[in-house]
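Q&A log
Question type: sequence-to-structure
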Amino acid sequence: MMEIQTITTTPFDDQRPGTSGLRKKVKVFQTPHYLANFVQSIFNVLEDYQGKTLVVGGDGRYYNREALHIILKMAAANGFGRVMVGRGGILSTPAASCVIRKYQTFGGIILSASHNPGGPDDDFGIKYNTANGGPAPEKITESIYQQSREITQYRIVEAADIDLDTTGEQQLGDMRVEIIDPVSDYADMMEQLFDFDAMRSLLSSGSFSMRFDAMNAVTGPYAREILETRLGAKAGTVLRGEPLADFGGAHPDPNLAHAKELVATMSGADAPDFGAASDGDGDRNMILGRDFYVTPSDSLALLAANAARVPGYAGGLAGVARSMPTSQAIDRVAAALGIECYETPTGWKFFGNLLDAGKITLCGEESFGTGSDHVREKDGLWAVLFWLNILAVRKQPVADIVHEHWKQYGRDVYTRHDYEGVSADGASALMEQLRERTGGLGGQSFGDYTVELADDFSYTDSVDNSVSSKQGIRILFDNGARIVYRLSGTGTEGATLRVYIEQPETDADRLEHDPQETLAELISLSATIAEIEKFTGRTAPDVIT
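Response status: OK
Response body:
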């Protein structure tokens, strides 16, 4: 007979989930009752889960194991019949989505702060995914937040911690705990989607080499199993493949600023042919060729344009979608294919309805996230394998494939400037003054640029008709150029102001120019219009991608 404890508690006022769950410093989550309050708030919102199966796992960052033990004991106390847990407490975010969908479970709790740093002084996160495998929609996350403001007690069983490191079933009170191989289900799915024979031939040809930087994060075991074991890539192809609680002191964000070792490896005449990286929880990707960087926006467009070359997508695409700040490169491909392209707010949950309704097959964000209808999360390693499949079929260098794409579809010259850790008050004031000015910007000229439309992006979901407003300030120019301002919802301190700058280019002689040079006037204009220095105190961005 299990002993259930009912613990009296008081609410915390800072548990509103962001674009991908609740993220705070580890020390905040270690505050007595803090994690338990939020977990109980999730359970209080859910209905008809008694006796059902829950999936739980995380990216292995600091506090992952401790949090898992609390969640398991609370799941048992609240009436779940079974919990599936990745061995060692590990499940990449896309793998968790895969397991939820494959075994048709009630849903899942994923422990991750994605690309944010890990360690005792750094970040932790938690989010709830529904039965479709995707992040809970806003109506659920808002209900969780309201519960967190009213909570007075939580339920937990008094029991010893279970063994997280041994595959098989254990009992926790009246609830079964099944420790599963965290990699196999996901790897099997990849083998069904891609031409492993062609990829294996490429990797064993002797004329092709690649490097995958797992950044001491969760994707390491997945990449080693798929790339080195199943596809036969040379040992050592996967760099920094051991998941570490603090990511080896590195910032597990696969971009040019934080994956400098890989970028250096991919430079020079003797560099590998193909390079890639993933992030803390395995849902982001960066793609590199020899001396060549592929922007996430271009990568999404390339995948769509070449989808017919990949077995899992050879039947055609139902449609595609991108987040609003993502470049319009995918729009051009969709038009050529005669399929719909949807523009959504930032946040993967907005793609979920479109995927579930069969309206789209591929989707992506400029923040290094790409995915498809195989799961309901973005998927870093999947994108890398998609590229590897294309390279195996086309037998061309990465740079040549991208250049040919630009010549066929035109190029959306694109950059993102991030101002990190700025004053939250200053960032909010900047956005508010832009919001107030949008109505008066139409028709104004700034040098060679005339504003056609300025607005605060609002989205009406084509499936459930829900409306999401205040999703980013857009300034659209009459030559097709854009500037977009948005505050990120993935950080834990201060605010991150993201500025997205884009200009279409179809002149064949200018397609390969450096984006920072091509966009120099727009970049300067973006700082002037928003008065970035006045509101943030910054004269330059922290990260440029």
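Response note: The domain at 411-544 is CATH 3.30.310.50 (TATA-Binding Protein).
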